[in-house]
Amino acid sequence: MDPDGLNGTWQGAGCRVSWSEATWDRPHFGGAVVQITSVEVEVGCSDSLAPLMEMWRKAGVVFVSCRIPASRVAEIIWMQQQGLQVIETALYPELSFTGAPTWSTTCTAEPAQAQEVALLSQMAEGTFGLERLHADPRVPNSVANRRYGGWVTSSFGHASQRLWSMKDETGKIVGFFVTQVQADGYWYWHLNGIAPEMQGRGVGRQVWRAMLLRSRADGALGVRTCVTARNLRVLRLYWGLGFGFAEPAMTLHAILGDIRP
Question: How many CA atoms lie within 13 A of 224 on its CB side?
Fold first, then answer.
């Protein structure tokens, strides 16, 4: 465990918890944000996270998040007993590239240019509404919007993430993607969206096909991403494009301090 308690592992009598600070979220939440990265719990565990929660509060932590595979029911129950609340079911679409591509599209995926970043960031701030931060009524929408816009901005020039401008046949920017190449050759689609004014007009399918074609052309063996179970429209899109689904996870949150909008 580091001196300020924002990164570490705690071993109890019947559980083990590891966590790290999400440093990129601090500017948007007005305090430190901790991600619980792994939880192992024995059935009947009587350990309490209260000492950790108090340590985090003293360290300035305002928000704690955790994702646990849906099959780890004992861990999910125990975390709820510790004060974390289930916010969403996270689903994991995945597609392997085999055979010749069958998609066609009117859109293109192009590496974002410096002069496009502000527009893409603004687009991200207005795109989301169903994912975990907007779904949690304790998190101000302005914080969630700012967080996603900031993510898009920081992905430009990032060491491992890449920002893409999605353009229609006229060259107009209609969406964005943030991607990362994984160790096994798959691309992970961290963040993606369509301009709010273009949603519900069939643009999404064209944009997603364009990103699939670009991923494959640039050497990806397949793609993976994460979608909240609330977003039925996007889940239908992935299903229609031939994606399968890996094991879902439950997302849990705890609020430890004032989140400043």
Answer: 17
Q: Residue 201 pLDDT more than 80?
A: no
Question: Residue type for 21, please?
Answer: E
Spatial contact of 242 and 205, defined as CB atoms under 8 Å apart: no
Task: Classify residue 36 by its DSSP letter.
Answer: E
117: Cα within 13 Å, side-chain hemisphere: 14
Q: Which of 206, 186, 187, 184 is nearest to 195 (CA)?
A: 206
Cβ atoms of 254 and 218 closer than 8 Å? no
Q: Is the pTM for the entire model greater than 0.90?
A: yes
Q: How large is the average pLDDT for residues 229-250?
A: 96
Q: Which residue intervals of the chain are DSSP H helices?
A: 26-29, 50-58, 73-81, 117-127, 132-135, 141-155, 203-217, 232-240
Angstrom CA distances, 22 to 7, 32, 191, 238, 250, stand at 10, 8, 16, 28, 19
Q: In the chain, count H helices and then E strands.
A: 8, 12
Q: How far apart (Å, rounded) are the C-alpha atoms in residues 58 and 183? A: 37
Q: What are the tokens at 203? A: 């643009």
Q: What is the pLDDT of residues 79-125, one digit of tens each?
A: 999 999 999 999 999 999 998 788 899 999 999 999 999 999 999 99
